[in-house]
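Researcher: For the annotation table, I need structure tokens for Vitamin B12 dependent methionine synthase, activation domain. Please keep the output clean. Sequence:
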Amino acid sequence: MDETIKSKVKYFENIPAVPNRDWILSRLGYRKGVTELKTRDLQLIDECIQQGGYLCKPAGAYMNISIIDKDMTGIVLDNNISLMSQSLSKLLKDSHSVILMASTVGHEVSKKVFTEIENGNASAGLILDSVASQTADAALDWMVQMLDKMLIREGKKLTKHRYSPGFGDLPLCYQKDIFEALQLFRLNMALTEKFMLIPEKSVIAIAGVEDKGEL
């Protein structure tokens, strides 16, 4: 990989990501006003959220890379990555560059989820799994907020939404290109032959950079 491109990758090893409790419950199937939680259920949830906070080690990486070609079928980036997706191209219609980003919460929490389920504590395992998923998303949210604050000084902003490989018409195989561009092995991450991220609670996403325009 070209040295100038490598230098654009920024890493964060201690992201202060705080998962949203309501989203944790929603992922578990809780519906406000419908699902009734007993006192012991609430106590278990709070204990697992606290434990998940200790086990999750949110880290991330991002790079800002120019778009050199774009049409209705997809985009081509300055590092020769081609992302063929009509939906992504539509999202990036006003963007001149993209942010490639990724977050992970590390291996410890996934090991704990497996251990809890193996020991017959399925409820605790599922809650921890939800906490880990929401923490990984929260780490991306933290990076997006940080980037927006940086970009606003340049009269720019991120697209309202972000897009991930495996979503819509953007094939999961593109995780390989982004994984390599961000050199995610530096965050102790890996990619399977089927393009799944390891640790499991890791996320790759794409957001566009566009001009903020007149207020």
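Researcher: And a one-line annotation?
Model: The first helix runs from residue 3 to 6.
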